[in-house]
Amino acid sequence: MNNKVTPTHKERSLHDDDFIVSKTDLKGRILYGNRIFIELSGYSEHELLNSQHNVVRHPDIPRGIFQLMWNMLSKKKEMFAYLKNMSKDGGFYWTFGHVTPSYDDRGNVTGYYSVRRKPKAEAISVITDLYRAMLEQERKAGAQDAPNASLNYLNQFLEQRGESYEEFILSL
Ligand SMILES: Cc1cc2nc3c(=O)[nH]c(=O)nc-3n(C[C@H](O)[C@H](O)[C@H](O)COP(=O)(O)O)c2cc1C
Asked: How far is CA 26 from the centre of its chain?
């Protein structure tokens, strides 16, 4: 659905007390979005429900970040990430998000759940530079190798800082 949307420079900001919530099935199809998620997206609830979550994907986010997200989720781990999302009109909003599996009472993963908050401006400045460098690696590597190329870059970046991904993200 978002393939036809052209990104613009129109930025929307979250309020300090906003929580953006969405829930998906195991394949990342949206099953629920709270009011603020729907409003910021610019889509109707009807358009969002049952769409893939990449409906709000912004091209400035490296594919490697989503690969990392799905790798972590497949290991039943939670993941924190700074995500820039794109609205229906091409505008964008930055979030600091937490994605985690949801379980049934037998411990089986039934889907995924995400809560996002307003990020700090200083964090976005660090992340923008990092993602730009990761995207550069993806461009050089070509479509097929893009996620691995940018994840290699991210791993080297973390190694140089002597931090795990989580330590780095939570320190921003
Ligand atoms: C619970 C949950 C929340 C997600 N939230 C977002 C989001 O806010 N923005 C986004 O671009 N992708 C989000 N994703 C990841 C998408 O499912 C998808 O992997 C990503 O947009 C990349 O899509 P693509 O590989 O088709 O380009 C989320 C996934 C899950 C499971």
From this structure: 16
- Atom 23 in ligand 1: residue holding the nearest Cα: 54
Pick the CATH number of 14-171 from 3.20.20.10, 3.20.20.60, 3.30.70.260, 3.30.450.20: 3.30.450.20
The preferred substitution site among 22, 50, 57, 96 for testing ligand 1, maximizing ligand atoms within 8 Å of CB, is 57
pTM comes to 0.96
Q: What residue spans define the domains of the chain?
A: 14-171
**pLDDT for 19-56, tens place per residue?**
999 999 999 999 999 999 999 999 999 999 999 999 99
Which two three-digit tokens encode residue 56? 């709000």
What DSSP designation does 14 have?
Answer: -
Residues 6 or more apart whose CB falls under 8 angstroms from that of 161 comprise 168
| pLDDT score for 140 | 97
SS3 93: strand
- The DSSP code sequence of 47-73 is HHTTSBGGGGB-TTS-HHHHHHHHHHH
